[in-house]
Amino acid sequence: MSQVAWAPLTEEDLPALRELALACLRADGGLPILAEEPMLRRYFLAGEGIGGRDETGDLVAAAGVTRDRSGQRSASGLVRPSARHRGLGTELAAWCSEHAGGTLLRVAVETTSPETEAFLHRLGLVRTFAEHVMRHDLLDVPRIRRPQGLRSLPWDEESAPLFHEAYRQSFAERPGFPDTPFGEWVRDLTDDPGFRPDRSRVVVDGEGRPAGFVTLSDCWVDQVGVVPQWRGRGLGAHLVARSLRALRRVGCGEAWLAVNVDNPAHALYLRLGFVDAGLRARYGQVA
Question: What is the reported pTM?
Answer without folding.
Answer: 0.90
